[in-house]
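User: Just a sanity check before I run the rest of the batch. Below are the structure tokens for the first item. I only need the designed sequence back.
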């Protein structure tokens, strides 16, 4: 490894940022690699062990970002002992959420009705990206901010799939219907199962928070209420698992 990989360590001055949340750290190989490849993502500095840097370089070039050598213990001090950082952290500014007009003509969308847990939202973003969805829609309120935990759970999907923020979910669903998108809400108490292999056309899959489910106005905006047909005694799943199964079923041919 050449000596110029890691410049000498200096105190890092964090300048004021427009976003009130300020900079944050993303961590994990897949998460950091996706952020490095995202031209819209503003990167501040890359903290990495020599081994993690080699793994990052296997996925592509390192863009013009300040690189600082670190150790796992130093990363634990910054990120906390529970962060699965894999020897790398990237200090960034949060990316702006997309607006609804950016996904005109979408064929497959996920809509999250007040799902606030960052692990669940991150996992849903990951599944949405894996199954080729065109975007994920969440409300401006009662949705998690961008954090390292959210980004790590998404395993890079936060930088790979549009994450749309809306202020009024029911109006957004009506707009999508006007654009020819069929709105499918999910409720474990529904009598209609989601059918594998059926051509639903352009669809938006709407999922609610565990326990509360979909709000009444959200339900009223749905074209159909469906359930995942489960044969066992437990009839409900973690919302991120339900999202993955629904995506598999809706995309199966």
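Assistant: Here's the designed sequence for the first item:
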């Amino acid at each position: 490894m050449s000596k110029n990989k890691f410049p000498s360590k200096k105190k890092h001055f964090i300048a004021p940022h427009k976003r009130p949340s300020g900079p944050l750290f993303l961590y994990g190989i897949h998460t950091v690699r996706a952020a490095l490849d995202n031209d819209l993502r503003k990167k501040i500095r890359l903290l990495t062990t020599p081994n993690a840097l080699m793994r990052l370089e296997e996925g592509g070039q390192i863009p013009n970002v300040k690189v600082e050598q670190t150790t796992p213990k130093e990363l634990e001090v910054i990120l906390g002992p529970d962060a699965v950082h894999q020897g790398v952290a990237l200090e960034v500014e949060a990316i702006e959420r997309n607006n609804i007009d950016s996904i005109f003509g979408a064929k497959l969308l996920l809509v999250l009705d007040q799902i606030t847990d960052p692990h669940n939202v991150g996992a849903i973003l990951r599944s949405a990206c894996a199954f080729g969805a065109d975007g994920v829609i969440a409300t401006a309120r009662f949705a998690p901010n961008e954090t390292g935990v959210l980004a790590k759970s998404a395993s890079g999907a936060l930088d790979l799939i549009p994450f749309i923020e809306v202020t009024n979910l029911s109006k957004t669903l009506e707009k999508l219907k006007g654009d020819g998108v069929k709105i499918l809400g999910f409720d474990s108490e529904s009598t209609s199962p989601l059918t594998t292999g059926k051509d639903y056309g352009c669809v938006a899959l709407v999922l609610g928070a565990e326990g509360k489910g979909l709000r009444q106005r959200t339900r009223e905006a749905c074209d159909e209420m469906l359930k995942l047909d489960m044969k066992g005694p437990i009839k409900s799943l973690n919302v991120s698992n339900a999202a993955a199964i629904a995506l598999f079923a809706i995309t199966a041919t």
